[in-house]
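chain below, 79 aa
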Amino acid sequence: MSCAFVGLVRSLALMVPVSAEDEANVVPTCRDPKDNPFLALVLASSADALISSDADLLVLHPWRGVPIITPGDYLLSNA
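prediction:
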């Protein structure tokens, strides 16, 4: 991965803390409990979408009104 790409991501990234309360509010939960923190992040960040290739997350699309889409679908929808 190029240093320029990493620098770009760092300059645009926003760190969002996820609390235990956020994780407790993940309803419905994911069939893989290890993916629940990503759903909690959706809540904590008020995300417009969750981009993932994980089948356990994709099957929840849309989750609480938030689209869960693959990276390819995201790129196609924002081209």
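The chain has five helices and two strands. Helices lie at 3-12, 20-24, 36-45, 55-58, 71-77.
thats it, cya
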